[in-house]
Amino acid sequence: MSLLETIHDPAELRKLPRTQLKPLADELREFLLDSVSKTGGHLSSNLGTVELSIALHYVFNTPYDRIVWDVGHQTYPHKILTGRRERMPTLRQLGGLAGFPARAESEYDAFGTAHSSTSISAALGMALAAQRKGENRKAIAVIGDGAMTAGMAFEALNNAGVADADLLVILNDNDMSISPPVGALNRYLAQLMSGQFYAAGKNVAKTVLKAAPPLFELAKRFEEHAKGMVVPATLFEKFGFNYIGPIDGHDLDSLVPTLENIKHLKGPQFLHVVTKKGQGYKLAEADPVAYHGPGKFDPKVGLTPSASGKLTFTQVFGQWLCDMAAKDSRLVGITPAMREGSGMVEFEKRFPQRYYDVGIAEQHAVTFAAGMACEGVKPVVAIYSTFLQRAYDQLIHDVALQNLPVVFALDRAGIVGADGPTHNGAYDIPYLRAIPNMAVACPSDENECRKLLTTAFGRDHPVAVRYPRGAGPGVAVEPTLEPLPYGKGNVRREGQRIAILAFGTLLHPALAAAERIGATVVDMRWAKPVDTALLLDVAARHEALVTVEEGAVMGGAGSAVIEALHAAGVLKPVLQLGLRDEFIPHGDPARLLALQGLDAAGIEASIRERYGDLAGRAPTLKVVG
User: What is the pTM of this model?
Assistant: First the structure.
């Protein structure tokens, strides 16, 4: 039996002698690589947190002590050490382990995370709640250097520094390295600065020297400069934290004693830990971006090119962005730290002076775009649907209220699959169509996506173009920059009695269902504005309507159809099909769509159940009461 197989929970981990922690880390890293290569998932970030996960659970009394992992895509070692090792083959699959911390999954997941920069706020809340209840529990926030670019992290630091809470913030810095000589010095200084003697001495010095202000100021400056020789510690100390580090996050002989010292300190503490993405797997170390979220692969061979042959919607956007930039010098591309995910790698290479990565700061990204638009620049903000939620006030107040021509390229609209409910783009149609001046386009295929992006770019008001993750149906993309008519849909199939109004890529299962029931199918293209003229014409020629969308059905495109009909004084039965009023779990996207009744069979079944004889058979009678 391996050492890792003896660890079923952190209590068993804490029984190990410290000399066995390094062999355990080696086994954990090997298990992690083997497991993720078979399931797919986040790899580079998790290889980088093996030692940190071991040290935290070894030193702190989890789950009584709370650990909040920012973003949470680096918590696989944490999950393995907290009783979920045998379930790792189910990772990110329907009914299996989530790819992020989830409170419903384990008591060791103190706070559900997946969007960045929330850890310090949550851990501070936990620390002050423990203080109010008289509980001597610790609260630890583990946040990456990327997540520290968001304003919310600094809002929490600002609050924590004056809250007098026993809070430990660990900055997991994986964007720099420590050379061995500096690492040894850092280890010594970190342990010294985290020790009781140093803390007590500093407090005594403050008390004594405050009687002589010049001496106190001199001592304070000397301490700041001494720490500044290693890192710019003063920033975090200005927030009211005791800064410690940086230390090597892969050196357990440094991590464990430093954390043991910090555990006994009072007040806000800030530990700077340096790790390396992909640590221990040479291919991931060399290219941590490629191995950030790989699918299944052979660890001995590494990643191989995809053989699907289809363009993804993200690639369609990336190509369009470069082509439009070549045509119009006003175009700039903006991303909140999602260059690869949003398909902007080639754009950055070709137009580096027109590419802006603002960090994980969605609010800033939107208002930054608004400022540019005020000056005649044409910003395209490439952002995931789920992340645009974080900038809703900026959408309303800074863009739409001023009616500025900003294009929002909303990737990952609809069900995203393995990343689960935190990343599903379920709500953009309802939250966008409620905003005056905003328009929302829903392309049904790759070619339509490119053309609608062109339409959006040509408008003088804000427009969002939403498209799903992954490949489309395989429609050839015309290499032109021709737009489609603004706010106009298109009849794709003529039928009788029932008309299906499809928004987005669900047009294709709707067409398949329509073949079975003889229905008309309309590619509506725009959730706002709805093509009212086309809608009223179709409503006049059919006995019932069905709306289909890969988004929240409450307040979605189907609701827009009903509102338009009512405004025109038309009463017509409308069946709304979309994502139900529930959080959709992680799993295979096709399977999840089928469970929501949004595949061809599900759409057909829902129509037959509601309309019965209109779809070729008598309706099902339901007894009420």
Answer: 0.89
